[in-house]
Design goal:
The protein has 464 residues and is of the alpha/beta class. Among the domains are: 1-131, 3-Layer(aba) Sandwich (Rossmann fold); 138-312, Rossmann fold. The protein has 20 helices and 16 strands. Helix 11 (249-261) crosses helix 13 and helix 14 packs across helix 16. Bound molecules: adenosine-5'-triphosphate and magnesium ion (MG).
């Protein structure tokens, strides 16, 4: 986790504050608490806080200028709970960077809200990163990507869309080659005409020629009438030759001729037909290798790859994974009227570390499957199929607070040890859902000793 993504809880009601702190620490977040006085701005600055959780009422009464001041600290996302006591606050809570959590506090809701806030904040930080490309995270309302390679790809697609130059898109299976081809067509001046896809691998060799160029009546058994081919259908539009690496040698020659002369002859005809098509070819095979092995014509390869585009594998742009998950989740929730809230951090961690041999298609299918099976709630590692878990070493959440380097001015040992002890106790209680006997076992204490400590420290997790 980056240092700017810690969460600051502003202390108002000690019990709630401790509960929230213990809960979020247990979830693996880096949590700091601050006294509710002006010094919390220093805390926010010093600890590079990304999210502030505070009581709306407290903010209203004690810090009327909170929102204004908070904005001056960058980056900062404000998460304000817990009560909607005053309608005057509504304009504040509807601000895009402010998330609202109603009372009474529900820890599941809190978790899903914090997850959303974290995601939003990481997008915001990415946007403010000067070195990042300037594109929005969605191209042509379909293609999602905020990683550097995808932003560069969006840039490229926008630049080449207008030209009629032939494009060769390469990339592993499921990386979005067809999506990219469609985006190029949509962004081009040809978008009012057809986008015609042909899957060269799916059509039997003896039919592909007629499929591409059409045929005249009687040219072969079964040719009962003249039939237009895909080239003709794509006139003034775009022809998408998918799986071009599977095209047989005799057709490669014919295709080369169309690329050179912009004309072709339908099967059985001697009359050439002129055509104005923009060709985009795609393959998940390594064409250079096929050329080297003489399985693909070198001259055709050069004709096709006037503008070569490679879509990187998903594992080479892992920062797109949470964004894609977020978008697929929203889409499948709405398609199926399900209410899956999100993915727990641990699950996201596992999915970001996974290698995705099936790339975006595999991720999309997984999210759809999880939404169908889960229906509602938060997706946890237990919901994932085994293959995503194997090879993954269990993520350690939470990290115990580590002793910090001794500051110049020294520390108050007693209060630090006290704080450390409080946190461990609250984590144990959070993990056991407030069960003191089990929490005591986790801490290697007697139940009575734990209860004594809770009383002495005036700590309360859930009243019994
Ligand atoms: N960047 C992306 N944003 C959103 N959805 C994507 C993205 N990339 C791929 N997809 C989705 O993933 C699936 C696979 O994409 P597509 O069919 O374009 O891949 P492909 O590279 O042509 O795969 P194949 O080589 O198997 O034909 C589609 O449902 C597509 O919508
Ligand atoms: Mg494809």
């Amino acid at each position: 986790m980056s240092s700017s993504s810690s969460i600051c809880i502003i202390d108002n009601d000690r019990k709630t504050c401790d509960l929230v702190s213990a809960f979020l620490t247990y979830q693996g977040y880096d949590v700091v608490t601050a006294e509710h006085n002006v010094s919390f701005f220093d805390t926010i600055r010093d600890k590079r806080v990304g999210i502030v959780i505070a009581d709306l009422h407290l903010l209203q009464t004690v810090f009327p200028d909170f929102v204004v001041n908070a904005r001056t600290i960058n980056p900062l996302l404000v998460l304000i709970g817990y009560g909607r006591q005053n309608d005057k606050l509504l304009p504040i809570v509807s601000e895009e960077s402010i998330f609202f959590l109603p009372k009474p506090l529900n820890l599941d809701e809190l978790e899903s809200l914090v997850m959303r806030a974290m995601e939003y904040q990481s997008l915001k930080m990415h946007d403010s990163d000067d070195s990042a490309a300037h594109h929005p995270h969605v191209l042509n309302s379909t293609m999602i990507g905020k990683s550097r390679p995808m932003q560069a790809l969006f840039d490229m697609i926008e630049k080449v869309a207008e030209s009629t130059a032939t494009i060769l898109i390469q990339g592993e299976s499921g990386t979005g080659k067809e999506l990219a081809a469609r985006a190029i067509h949509q962004l081009s001046g040809r978008n009012s005409r057809n986008f015609v896809p042909v899957n060269c691998a799916a059509i039997p060799d003896d039919l592909l020629e007629s499929e591409l160029f059409g045929h005249v009546k009687g040219s072969f058994t079964g040719a009962y009438a003249n039939r237009a081919g895909r080239f003709e259908m794509a006139d003034k539009g775009t022809l998408f030759l998918d799986e071009i690496g599977d095209m047989k040698a005799n057709l490669q020659v014919k295709l080369l001729r169309v690329l050179q002369n912009r004309e072709f002859e339908p099967v059985g005809s001697t009359r050439s037909q002129k055509v104005d098509v923009r060709i985009i070819a795609a393959t998940n095979k390594n064409l250079e290798e096929l050329v080297a092995n003489k399985d693909f014509r070198e001259d055709l390869y050069y004709r096709l790859s006037v503008i070569p585009i490679t879509i990187p594998a998903l594992r080479e742009r892992r920062d797109d994974i949470p964004l894609l998950i977020h978008n697929f989740l929203a889409r499948f929730n709405s398609d199926r009227r399900h209410a899956v809230k999100g993915f727990s951090r641990e699950t996201l961690g596992i999915l970001c570390a996974y290698d995705w041999p099936g790339n975006v298609r595999e991720l999309e299918n997984l999210v759809e499957r999880l939404v169908i099976l889960k229906d509602s709630g938060v997706i946890t590692p237990d919901d994932l199929p085994d293959k995503y878990l194997s090879g993954h070493t269990q993520v350690q959440v939470p990290e115990l607070p580590t002793a910090e380097a001794l500051p110049e001015g020294g520390v108050c040992l007693n209060s630090m040890v006290d704080e450390f002890e409080n946190r461990l106790i609250l984590q144990a209680l959070a993990r056991t859902g407030g069960n003191k006997k089990e929490a005591a076992t986790l801490l290697n204490l007697k139940r009575t000793t734990l209860i004594e400590k809770l009383k002495k420290k005036n700590l309360a997790y859930i009243e019994e």
